[in-house]
Amino acid sequence: MPPRPVVPPAVHDSLVLEPRDVRFDWSRLPLHWIPDEPMATHTVNVLHLLLPEGERWFVEVFKDALPLITDDQLREEVLGFIGQEAIHAEAHQEVLDHLLGQGLDPRPYVRQVTWLFRRVLGKRPGLTAAQQRENLIERVAFVAAIEHFTAFLGNWALNSPGLDRAKADPTMLDLLRWHGAEEVEHRSVAFDLMVHLDPGYLRRLRGMLVSGPTLFHLWIRGVRFLLAADPSLNGSVRPTWREAQRIARRGLLPEPSRMVRSALRYFRPGYHPTQEGSSSQALSYLAGSPAARAAASR
Ligand SMILES: [Fe+2]
Ligand SMILES: [Fe+2]
Predict the structure, then answer these.
(1) Which top-level group of life is the source organism from (predicted)?
(2) What total of structural domains would you count in the chain?
(3) Distance, CA 278 to ligand 2 centroid (Å)?
(4) Lowest mean pLDDT among 36-40, 119-123, 260-264
(5) Which helix (H) or strand (E) holds 246?
């Protein structure tokens, strides 16, 4: 089959992505960092279970894709994306290590996530060059769909006064909003890379149809796992849909219906990630983030 024509990525403001080498001190983080809200705390904590391995996988996929990029600006953006995601992974890894120190052992779940990203979604041995290319572009499409959700969640984190009202731990809030702001900042890179490598609509469709339900399934399993493994709860809190809706109404989680509507927008033929969230709001948060400011002064 002849190679598909390469089209330039969708036009957007030129982007200079700066990896910010942030550090967080978790020594005083309470196990339920949203006070008296174990289910809300652990629903957000699923991020820490998924992201270290997930974002390391993004980095591997994008490094493999670098030789296929024929647009200099996009290559620079991909390099910036790789730098940011590598730091995100390590920041969330530190929270996982802290949970273990507090008696909540995340390792059984993380082993499954590791297996998924390294074995199921990792590089396949024994493929021809054409098959390798096809497999790589398919994985880029999965990343692009997941990045739609990370940008959605980042935008939510930047606009979630409910977390402040509930007196959520300020260091965790800064982690979530620093990471969320960088997700909004680089939200178009994976999509533009996918379109650069394959402009076909079917690729985008498949990426979301696989990634969306997989992510949802992993999240439900993660919440169940964390609530069962929390040594302070003794299995007393069981996740229910009604409880999730109560928490969302308090502004401690995104409204599920908003999330579904956002996922559906990804299927619009004219969709581009720049239509979601605000780069200026993200950059404004990063200018004031305690962790990002400390990183800039080092
Ligand atoms: Fe990230
Ligand atoms: Fe990202």
Answers:
(1) Bacteria
(2) 1
(3) 15
(4) 119-123
(5) helix 241-249
CA pair distance 116, 85, nearest whole angstrom: 18
pLDDT tens for each residue of 1-13? 444 443 434 445 5
21 within a domain of the structure (yes/no): no
Domain with 102 in it: 38-297
The verdict on residue 99 lying in a domain is: yes
**Inter-CA distances, 45 with 34, 41, 61, 227, 282, Å:** 11, 6, 25, 10, 22
- The CA 150 to ligand 2 mean position distance, Å, reads 6
Is residue 13 a part of any domain in this protein? no
Q: What is the dihedral of CA 114, 117, 119, 123, to 10 degrees?
A: -140
Amino acid, single-letter form, for residue 1: M
Position 30 in a domain: no
CA distances from 226 to 90, 99, 110, 154, 295 (A): 20, 10, 11, 22, 31
Rounded to whole angstroms, the Cα distance separating 183 from 157 reads: 11
Q: Per residue in 262-298, is it b (16+ CB within 10 Å) or e — as a string? A: bbeebeeeebbbbebbebeebeebbeebebbeebeee
CA of 236 to the centre of ligand 1 (A): 32
